[in-house]
Amino acid sequence: MAAVSRIIHKFRSMCYYTHVGISTRTFSQEVLTKEKPIHIPVMVNEVLECLKPQPGQIFIDMTFGAGGHSQCILESAPDIKLFVLDRDPVSYSIASRLAGKFPGQVEPLLGKFSELPELLRSHGVRHNSIDGILFDLGCSSMQFDVAERGFSVSKDGPLDMRMDGYRFPEQPTAADVLANANEEDLVKILKVYGEEKQAKKITRAVIEARYTFKKLETTSELGELVASVCVDEERLDKLQRHAHSATKTFQALRIFVNNEINELNYGMILAETYLKVGGKLVTLTFHSLEDRIVKRHLLGNVIDNAINPLPLKYTNHSLWYDRNEIDSLLHSNWKLIHKHVLTPSVEEVNVNPRSRSAKLRAAIKVRDK
Description:
The chain has about 375 residues and is of the alpha/beta class. Helix content is about 40%, strand content about 15%.
């Protein structure tokens, strides 16, 4: 726990990203010296085209990040009211700076999706009152780029991966998960959240490492261990570039540590709750787990406030359903704006390769629950 305490102390004592006005120190000299933006928002034109902001409307940016999408929304029409939510204290600091640039228009909110109802209640926001909601899911570039956050396999740092930073000191880190999860659970984490085909082999190597040398504590240690297991396998990303064999393992641990899937499922329920009829929802997802949850919520394939694990297909032709049963299965409070998912243009991917996996879905709320 000494390592965890050191990381917490760093979060508390350091300020971030001097070029957005949060000065004195950063996590690393590398961040200080960079001239490029800390985050390039993905598919901005498509997002604005779907939301169509009008003067005086109210929006929620559920994943503020570095504020790229939020600033574009604010600049697209006068008198926009924008609630910006993020669980990362770094993003909250940036949001506070944006609030100073747009006085009376921006309300920074620090919290997870599951904390949103309480945060909005303190601002007097009621159900069915929001004009548009945006989700830009996954990990932000500024989180990947800071080695001390532990999100990136390509940057050596502590295996932390907590998006909340110091807010919950007792929250397990990725290193804690690797040190304490049993073999069966670790296999499930890698297979379900990372869709990792070599989940069993990687897990066995992690378990054996507990007894052969010290605890896995850094990103480089985990990356090297996974690479030693997948030595005969070459992996490519969507741009056909070499991809590290530990990429999916890192994704799985990050999703598990931050409870991202359950948070997203609840976030989609909240979006339907707070949007007014005619309000618009826009989501940007970056892997199939996120996209599956969004898609099934929009199609109404939800049972007891959770997505149906099965798609809406009828595989048994001997079964017969009456009209009411069919309507209940296909009922949705959403109307899709596009028939198919939107993806970034070739030009955008060339400028911002991290956008290559993005999928945009947009819908209009057509009825209340």
